[in-house]
Specification:
Dihydrodipicolinate Reductase, domain 2, 3 domains, alpha/beta, Rossmann fold, 11-stranded mixed sheet, Alpha-Beta Plaits, 17 strands, binds NADPH dihydro-nicotinamide-adenine-dinucleotide phosphate, single chain, binds L-homoserine
């Protein structure tokens, strides 16, 4: 059978990995796919660099639309990133009747509904394994392997850059800015690294997993997003002393009134496997009613790990190209005509309705009755305390200090109730600095 013809848009970190892995493993990939997969054309703004990567093996062009206009190209692989030109090119490729593979979680989390609809109308595939957790086949696992289950929750370390930063800060005591630069040099970070450190990239990925896990539309605008920029070394240390590690988690959960969809730093018990995922590694824990808890671990970023997922999509497409797609796996796991109704029955909950437990660090005047006042406010709000740790004033503020840190761990409570209690505590004259609140996930 004639090799399937691929056009690559963007040959940066992931594009160059895709090119070299396909070249290196082409014979095994051909035996798996049942036909060859050939990158016939490559488009990049920097044609000189692109030519250095591909040599004479593919035609290099500066204008991506030349690829879309070529009737010989069967599949367009979009590895440019962002919502701008990438969106236009993906929609134009679909309109031209080409299958699309993309690693662009930002694009799908925000414009997925429009893109999947256009693809269904045109009878082409939009595949995106690389968009979530890089090389880990989590889309396939959620969409196919766990299809028997009613998924209860998914929680993951799904941003390599922030996990790398948190690990290096904890282990080597390095500064945030130094480690961020290292992550950029290693090719983990997004073109705009604020997407990584402010939790936006993880929220894009959590949004996609939420849609696949619960059969609802992609709704990035409803996700709660909080990054790691406000975390202090003190909290990382206190968490350790209490038997926890702080990780940036993407969480989506089935609750009584709807679906939780949130990204924020979380205390995770140090004994959990996921708490020990270090560096740029990713891990996703999925809890299904039939299977119980399953864990997926691997490289969530980088050139060849991400290429591994891009090529897996190409193999799927090579097998399906020319077949009736009506019976293929739906892009969001559930039949698309069921998504709208499910979205209404299972709304994404506002953060005030989320139920979780908390770590609080409260800087207080070191005087009698302060702890009693604070615990009294929590009790009045119906918030039950799990543990309290009071630091020595000298340890916190130096010798002779009159301030100290109170660390309080709570049991599960509604976020809205916690907001009210914290506003009351913050107003106490003996509370001397903004309260730190980090959510705590037991993941059991
Ligand atoms: P890079 O910035 O390394 O590569 C993007 C490439 O696209 C660059 O070579 C860029 O050229 C080129 N480009 C930009 N605009 C155009 C255009 N209009 N036409 C053709 N080429 C263009 O990004 P990555 O490879 O890191 O990321 C690609 C996608 O994969 C993104 O969506 C990203 O979120 C996603 N992803 C990345 C991972 C990673 O580990 N890096 C992991 C998982 C997903 P120039 O440099 O000259 O601007
Ligand atoms: N910037 C992303 C990360 C790349 O650090 O995880 C992988 O999606």
């Amino acid at each position: 059978m004639k090799p399937i013809q691929v056009g690559l848009l963007g040959i940066g970190t992931v594009g160059s990995g895709t090119f070299s892995v396909l070249q290196r493993n082409q014979e095994e990939i051909r035996r798996r796919a049942g036909r060859g997969i050939e990158i016939a054309m490559v488009a990049d703004l920097d044609m000189t660099r692109a030519k250095q990567v591909v040599g004479d093996a593919a035609k290099v062009v500066g204008d991506a639309r030349e690829i879309i206009a070529n009737p010989d190209i069967d599949v367009v692989v979009e590895l440019i990133g962002g919502y701008g030109i990438a969106k236009a090119l993906v929609l134009e490729a679909i309109a031209a009747g080409k299958h699309v593979v993309t690693a662009n979680k930002a694009l799908l989390a925000v414009h997925g509904t429009e893109i999947f609809k256009a693809a269904a109308e045109k009878g082409v595939i939009v595949a995106y394994e690389a968009a979530v957790a890089g090389g880990i086949p989590i889309i396939k696992a959620l969409r196919e392997g766990l299809t028997a289950n009613s998924i209860q929750w998914v929680a993951g370390i799904i941003n390599g850059t922030t996990n790398f930063i948190l690990s290096e800060m904890r282990d080597k005591g390095l500064d945030f800015d130094v480690v961020l630069k290292e992550a950029q040099a290693l090719g983990y970070a997004e073109a705009d690294p604020t997407f990584d450190i402010e939790g936006v990239d993880a929220a894009h990925k959590a949004t996609l997993m939420s849609a696949i896990a619960f059969g609802i539309p992609v709704q990035f605008d409803k996700a709660y997003v909080e990054g790691i920029t406000k975390l202090s070394g003190a909290d990382i240390r206190y968490a350790e002393q209490l038997g926890y590690r702080i990780k940036l988690l993407g969480i989506t959960k089935r609750a009584d009134k709807g679906i939780e969809l949130r990204v924020h730093p979380s205390l995770v018990p140090a004994k959990r496997l996921i708490a020990n995922v270090e560096g740029a590694m990713n891990a996703v824990v999925v809890h299904g009613d039939a299977v119980g808890t399953t864990l997926y671990y691997g490289k969530g970023a980088g050139s060849e790990p991400t290429a591994s997922a891009v090529i897996a999509d190409l193999v799927d497409i090579a097998r399906l190209h020319g077949a009736d797609l009506a019976h293929s796996v739906p892009p969001l796991a559930f039949q698309s005509n069921t998504l709208g109704a499910a979205g209404k029955e299972l709304p994404v909950l506002p953060m005030a309705e989320v139920v979780t437990s908390y770590y609080l660090r409260i800087r207080v005047a070191d005087e009698a009755g302060v702890l009693a006042k604070i615990t009294g406010i929590l009790a009045n709000a119906g918030i039950s305390i799990d543990a309290v740790l009071q630091r020595e004033a000298d340890e916190v503020g130096g010798e002779g200090s009159t301030q100290t840190d109170l660390i309080i761990l709570t049991h599960d409570t509604r976020e809205g109730d916690m907001d009210q209690a914290l506003a009351e505590i913050q107003a106490l004259p003996t509370v001397l600095a903004p309260i730190t609140r980090i959510r705590k996930e037991e993941l059991n």
